[in-house]
Give the backbone structure.
Amino acid sequence: MRKKIWKIFAMIFMVALVFTGCATVSDVYDKNGNLIYFEQLVSFGGQVAKIGDYLYYANGYTDASVDGFSYEDAKQTGYLSRINLSKRFEFDEEVNEQDKANTSPLNIEKVNDRFVGYQNQNMFALGSYLYFSSTNTHKSNSLENDYSQISLFRISFNGDNLQEIYTTRYDEKSSIEVVKGSDGNYYYVICAQNGEEKYELSSIKIGEKIGERVVLAKNIESYAIADDSSVQKDVVYIYTNDDEEKKIERVDFASGEKTECMYPTNYTVSLLDRCGDIVFYTVDKPNADVEVYYKDVSNFDNNFDGSNRFYSADSISNVTKSEDGYIFTSSNGALMFKTLNGNVKTLIKNDITFDVLFEDSGWIYYSTTSEISRVSIFDGSVTNVVSMADIVSGQCGYSDGYIYFFAKIQTTETEDEESSETTTDENYYLYRATVDGTMNYQLLGKTK
């Protein structure tokens, strides 16, 4: 009889584990002993998140777009990790001081083995959850994986309650933004291809409860999504209506309310980017060169008539607000700075290939495959932050004076005692360095 009771108890316990989960790491508390909870969304560049004393991050990085990508191989290094930054990093006793920069600390914790270290990561914290993206693992009807799709997840800070929110197609024309809506709630605002191979706008409310996906508009040609500094929480977009006419509209992604915009019918307009309520767009006028214009939409000025010229070019990209002006990448690949009505400065010439990372206090941080540097918008001075043999350019996190990035281990060659052959670790792992370049880099990822 006693054995039966224990068997029943064991079964109940196992079922409870299935439904409640089991924390993989400890809860995170603030200095007052309360569980960490974020009333407002906090983001740290996309690849990391600072939760209390802990840094959450992708342990390693793998490009999911390459031929032969293997999810199972990639997650061996690219899983979700965390480390307590308030404690001194510890190393094995045999590790000497000069090797610590390229040695994994001992106090790294695995939070979840879901693959998170790749090029389309979007990590942030809201409420008691860490939100992140991962490559799609759902099988198609032919039992094949489509790794070009992205799955959105959230997880409790202690590793419990992993929840898939949505899976979507994603390419270079797509966008996934997280913005507070006009109702005070946060939304995923997504523009991606649907099953008909056409782009559509949709939104998903997030917070304590995850809402249903709402389709906002279809047949999208170009778009400009509001950001944190926008007064008008909407999306301006150009679409093709049922009569095959190009139209410009604005949609409030919280309420779904739409407003029609105007433009001269003999112009061809294309939306490029948005900073706050300034929308940048090109206009192709008859008998004139294509040029970039701007429109302040904060007061529902809905006439895209090409009256405010910004820059003489057929396109610009990666527009970011900086001090009293805007930085952007020109169509020929140079990094520029310009106020709305002022002169333009060239910050980085187009003789190098680079990726802009973020802006902070007039410094523009950028990366190549071997360096991370910053350039001042005021005097054009350049400071090298870190130089390494092989860096993943364009991917980073930023928190508390540190920049986080992926790179190959510098001292990777080791000799196998049995075979006397040299082996090399070709994986990318997370490192950090101070943003002003005054401290040597430090490996944070756990090597295989």
